[in-house]
Amino acid sequence: MCYYYSMDAYGMPNGQYMNARRTNSMAVLSLIMGIFAILLFCTGIGPVIPGSLSILFAILSRGSEKHMDGSAKVGIAASVLGILIGIGLMVFVISEINSDGEFKQELDNAFIQVYGVDYDEFVRQINESSRTGETPEFMKDLEENMEKQRKERLLPSYDPGDI
Predict the structure, then answer these.
(1) Per-residue DSSP letters for 100-157?
(2) DSSP 8-state code for residue 24
């Protein structure tokens, strides 16, 4: 603990020691991680790691005392909020992707424009290529189209030595 002299009305020490409350670094770290959890909610699974660390640091900040600092309590609240919002957002996005609504159609159109296959086929090919280790068909098609455009001089050629 840190002690200091108390002062009288004129700023002079009056000889009495006062107990100075020190800032608990674990509680502050818990608060910072809780804020990161809120900021990372839009990444879906992102707030889980800083949120979990925030809760852990809040518990560790207590030490042998019976109560937690205010920073630790706010850190726990922020981390729980970030985790819940992140998981809720992820569940919403996954349910929208798997539904037969407009969002699914727009997603399919975007994947067809970029990769030449719809979302379901894209996921199927990625899963298959992760099992077999082979390049997905849509990637082979993309590489062929890029090579064709390079030959036609529509795209500049890429040489790693140019960097």
Answers:
(1) SSHHHHHHHHHHHHHHSS-HHHHHHHHHHHHHH-PPPHHHHHHHHHHHHHHHTTSS--
(2) -
Q: How far apart are CA 139 and CA 137, in angstroms?
A: 5
Dist. CA 80–CA 37, nearest whole Å: 8
Of the candidates 98, 95, 88, 6, the residue with the CA atom closest to the CA atom of residue 48: 88
Domain boundaries, the chain: 25-96, 100-154
Which amino acid appears at position 72 of this protein? Answer: A
pTM, two decimal places: 0.53
With beta carbons less than 8 A apart as the criterion, state whether 44 and 90 touch. yes
- 103-138 confidence digits (pLDDT tens): 778 888 888 888 888 888 888 888 888 888 888 888
Q: How far apart are CA 43 and CA 40, in angstroms?
A: 6
